[in-house]
Design brief:
The complex is a heterodimer of chains A (about 300) and B (about 160).
Chain A lengths: L5 H5 L31 H23 L8 H29 L5 H6 L19 H22 L5 H29 L3 H14 L11 H8 L26 H14 L25 H16 L6
Chain B lengths: L2 H7 L10 H4 L2 E7 L2 E6 L9 H14 L4 E6 L12 H9 L38 E4 L7 E5 L6 E5 L3
Parallel strand pairs in B: 2-3
Antiparallel strand pairs in B: 1-2, 4-5, 5-6
The chains are: A mainly alpha (about 300), B alpha+beta (about 160).
Chain lengths: ~300, ~160
């Protein structure tokens, strides 16, 4: 390839589609059976897929911001790979949301063309990391919570959510191990690394409670379709719960959290939030100002060049 | 050549020494007249090669005379490294990449946390030393970890078990 024509060489394919936003990236659910289980409210299922997809999308974006800033090359690769796994989960979930919504929007429209108040991610994923210790503390909380959630989701009555859950469990198992090992390495390290790791644990702790507070949509979907629903017994096999009630995941989270903190010689921070974290939830569209900054970066190109192709 | 044979010969873009069949991501090939439906499964949710694999399958089957080609995705059951064939494992070794061991089996209950990398005897693909150390659980792609041999000091990639 000649460097005089580097850009021409890059686009010297008959399948340019992969190079740009809005040029027909493959629907990651292409060919997957799109039926919605009988008795399940489409609006609820759309909102649920959107919430879980937004968690993965925003966390992935925050991780991507660490690329070129990590302490070692190996960590650049690890963070980029974790971000890529989560981006893949986000694409599957947003595609499922779009498919169930059936309103003409696709995964790109959901990712790039919604405003901050329409995002349903938990606020934990928005937080900017003050240093690497803050990042691994936040990633440990996120991965521990999400691993339990995806594991529960693998038994969902919605076959697409069940498949996304079962696949994601394998990936997030590695994410959690990565974060936990760094928390132990820094916590059980030098005096300085210990102090900074403890500060990070203290900073992330107030954000934990929100993860386990179910909203009405999660509760309705976790209860499963109403008995004697209009669909009736002829509509197919009896469907169980579609969603996971996050409050049921707390004990598994607490066990892992204590195990890591103990190995890291760190103490659990007291739950004395300043109050702000207790009010509302990202699931209701209540976000920190930090989400606006993320979206400005994430959506800038797509919004300034709608449908842009190059 | 049958459509199944054509599809089975398409190689993976990230691990070009392996065919899609070696890698275990080719799930079904259904032929009807001049049409083919190929069903594949992603290795990881975010695998960026899926689009290229789809294009490569379509090109190969068009080239073999099949006019209508559709590539479908299945997510379940989730791909496991156990699906890499014995021939695929031999090709990895020949390329200096350490093949995966058996995928972890989980009893019921929560996924166990692994704070210290499990000590497993993974041999060095360069010098054959039987025991090597993990440098990083992630490397050039999500599916490979980076290891090092304590004797010849060569780093190498290991396809990690999922």
């Amino acid at each position: 390839m000649s460097f005089d024509a580097a850009y021409e060489a890059l686009t010297d394919h008959d399948d340019d589609a992969r190079w740009a936003y809005g040029t027909g990236f493959t629907d990651p659910l292409a060919g997957v059976d799109s039926a919605v289980p009988p008795g399940v409210d489409r609006g609820d299922l759309t909102a649920y897929c959107l919430a879980l997809g937004d968690d993965a999308l925003i966390m992935s974006h925050r991780l991507q911001q660490w690329v070129t800033r990590a302490p070692e090359l190996e960590d650049e690769l690890a963070l980029a790979n974790i971000a890529l796994d989560l981006l893949g989960q986000a694409r599957l979930l947003l595609s499922r949301a779009a498919e169930v919504e059936d309103a003409g929007r696709d995964e790109d429209a959901l990712a790039y063309l919604r405003d901050a108040a329409e995002f349903r991610n938990v606020r934990l994923v928005e937080r900017a990391d003050a240093d690497f210790a803050h990042l691994v503390a936040r990633l440990l909380v996120f991965a521990t919570w999400r691993l339990a959630l995806l594991d529960g989701l693998s038994a969902s009555a919605d076959p697409v959510l069940a498949a996304i859950g079962a696949k994601g469990v394998k990936e997030v198992t590695y994410h959690r191990d990565y974060a936990a090992r760094w928390v132990v390495r820094l916590g059980d390290g030098t005096e300085i690394s210990h102090a900074r790791m403890q500060a990070a644990i203290d900073a992330v702790t107030p954000l934990i409670d929100e993860l386990f507070r179910p909203d009405q949509i999660e509760l309705r979907l976790a209860a499963g379709p109403a008995v004697g629903s209009a669909a009736g017994p002829a509509a197919g096999p009896a469907a169980g719960p579609v969603a996971v009630d996050p409050s049921t995941l707390r004990s598994e989270f607490d066990a892992v959290w204590s195990q890591v903190l103990e190995a890291a010689t760190l103490r659990a921070a007291g739950l004395a939030p300043d109050g702000a974290e207790l009010r509302g939830s990202g699931r209701d569209g209540l976000h920190t100002a930090e989400l606006t900054g993320i979206l400005a970066e994430l959506q800038g190109v797509a919004r300034s060049l709608p449908g842009g192709v190059w | 050549m049958t459509a199944a044979a054509v599809a089975a010969r398409v190689t993976d873009p990230e691990l070009p020494m392996l065919t899609l069949a070696d890698l275990g991501i080719l799930r079904r090939v259904d032929e009807s007249g001049d049409g083919v439906v190929v069903t594949i499964t992603p290795t990881y949710s975010g695998c960026p090669a899926m689009r290229t694999i789809q294009d490569d399958l379509t090109d190969a089957l068009h080239g073999a005379g099949y006019a209508r080609v559709e590539v479908r995705t299945v997510l379940s059951p989730a791909w496991s490294t156990d699906w890499i064939t014995p021939a695929g494992r031999d090709k990895l070794v020949a390329a200096g990449i350490s093949p995966p061991g058996a995928a972890p089996r989980r009893a019921s209950g929560p996924v166990p946390l692994t704070l210290v990398p499990r000590r497993r005897a993974i041999g060095c693909p360069q010098c054959g030393h039987p025991d090597t150390e993990e440098i990083a659980a992630f490397s050039a792609t999500a599916c490979r970890s980076l290891r090092r041999c304590p004797v010849c000091r060569e780093p190498f990639e290991h396809v990690k078990e999922i």
